Amino acid sequence: MTQKLKTESQPLISVIMPVLNSRRKIDAALNSLIAQRSRRFEVVFSDGGSTDGTIDYAMQILSAHGIEALSIIAIGSSIYAALNHAIRLARGRWYYVLGSDDCLYSAEIIERIQPVLVSSRADVIYGDAWFEAGEGFLYGGPFWPSRLAALNICHQSIFYRASRINELALTYNEDYPLLADWDYNLKLYSCSRFQHIPLLICRFSCEGLSSTRVDYKFEQERYQQIMTYFGWRSFFLFTPDWLSRSVAHRPTFFNRCGLMANRLVYKLWRRLRLMTVR
């Protein structure tokens, strides 16, 4: 079942929000959307079968502020099944995932990101996130292959070009209950253009399932998937996990050494890639 509050023009961004009984925690996310100075976006809700009126509540609030919203009800859907449903419904040229307990960092995010989305040749554009754990800390910076092999980009700081996703017929692997977005990013990085911008995109609550539980299936298969996606390039990606954890709240000397080592590996990988292109 779908609901729509429709306008005529195609939105630049589809903000996709999976929800399940989220009424008590969704206000911060909705308020951060309402506060945006630019309205070149739509909101697409994908509901796994809420019984607390989440969708009616959210749609009513957004409608009152003139924000286009769509929703799809897919009872029993997992988080990533919900995202797959929503992406098929979305109309934007780019899509962005926002957790119901997360929010955009400031009122200028859409306004500041839209010139980049319009002019960039990249397929994936990502910024940084503020993790609200403890006193809070900045999570982000540029990701290169060996770093992405060991540490994921925050899902709520990424904008995906819809035409590239459609071209690849890419969907989230629903066999991975918590880290399918990491698998998704690895596959995309192996064949698409990524661009980092130094902009804080979101406030990440750190209270969702992916922050509090372990996706054992993905962790068991991660390096196998990397080898499948990157082929011979995988040789340059396999560095110990601790080497890449340079975004720790208080990086150690070994974290910093690991970051330097990964940068050297990345430079070598890029040079070899340029040689093969020639």
Task: Offer a concise description of the structure.
The protein has about 280 residues and is of the alpha/beta class.
Model description:
The protein is α/β, with parallel strands linked by helices and 278 residues long. It has a domain at 1-101: Spore Coat Polysaccharide Biosynthesis Protein SpsA, Chain A. The protein is built from ten helices and ten strands. The protein has helices spanning 27-34, 54-64, 79-89, 109-119, 145-150, 162-168, 180-189, 209-212, 216-230, 253-277, and strands spanning 2-5, 13-19, 41-47, 69-73, 94-97, 103-104, 124-131, 137-139, 158-161, 194-204. Strands 1, 2, 3, 4, 5, 6, 7, 8, 9 and 10 form a ten-stranded mixed beta sheet that branches. Strand 3, helix 2 (54-64) and strand 4 form a beta-alpha-beta unit. Helix 7 packs parallel to helix 9. The model is unreliable at 240-251 (pLDDT under 50).
